[in-house]
Amino acid sequence: MSPRFLVIGEALIDVVDRDGELSRHVGGSPLNVAFGLGRLGVRTVFATEFGNDADGAAIAAHLASAGVEIARTDDGSRPTSTALARIGADGSASYEFDIDWTFRTAPSIDDVHAVHVGSIGAFRAPGGPRVLELIESLPSDVLVGFDPNIRPALMPSREESRRLVERFAARATIVKLSDEDAEWLYPGRADEVPGILLAQGARLIAITRGAEGSTLHSPGASVHVPARPTVAVDTIGAGDAYMSGLLAAIAAPSGMVTALEELTAADLAAIGRMAATSAAITVGRAGAMPPTADELERAERAPNDPPPSGL
Hints:
Elements: E1 4-8, E2 12-18, E3 21-27, H1 29-39, E4 43-48, H2 54-65, E5 69-72, E6 81-87, E7 93-98, E8 114-118, H3 120-123, H4 127-137, E9 143-147, H5 158-171, E10 174-178, H6 179-185, H7 193-200, E11 204-208, E12 214-218, E13 221-225, H8 238-249, E14 251-252, E15 255-256, H9 265-283, H10 293-301
Parallel strand pairs: 1-4, 1-8, 2-6, 4-5, 8-9, 9-10, 10-11
Antiparallel strand pairs: 2-3, 6-7, 11-12, 12-13, 14-15
């Protein structure tokens, strides 16, 4: 039986402003990771909350299209959360959020091999502390992925956010964060972040650096993985597609890879290439549309070809 992932966090609607033209897309960092895992053929449950409204129906349909099971953590009485995303000339996105996160009803962890959490759902009260409590209560054999995906306007102070990141890292197996996340959390000390989080207990740290690629670190090795060349349409969901590719890379048909304590430089490079390819495919098309398993496999087989741009 293939591994079963539980992803926990916010679901929302991205209202995208591109040169004054507005469009609506399903979004939210943890949702994008769950959706990406589903499209890669990983059995995935997404614990989230959204309203009993048209936006909520769009979220449910979007997740169903990737075969993702939904475990709702509230009653749906509040409107679905939104984020206004303004797209710059270079494809980068800036955000304004209208979001609530309660995590009133914790999902079942029966038959769950791995749990991923991050972003607003890991930090924003009242739900964030409940999520951390669940993560810290997980059995030791459950793999944990964590992506802080820093949103300063929606998070506690820098000092409190850093404390929470280190608590999550103490239970996490895999931590992924951007270089901007690292710099915000540890001003002037971003280069020290992999060592800091490995010392907390994490076994694999990935730092993404946009077009400069990513660096992956284990207790015994570090590698740099170049970004795969692509023509960027927008960067919405790029980091999330990297995260879903990273998580999928450590899953095997027979179950979770267990030798994370002994990851070599070659192991890190292979994991990082799969994650980078997933991100490249995603930024090459509008919206957070990560690759399918077939698209990723074809792109991995032809590393010198441009990544696919279709849906």
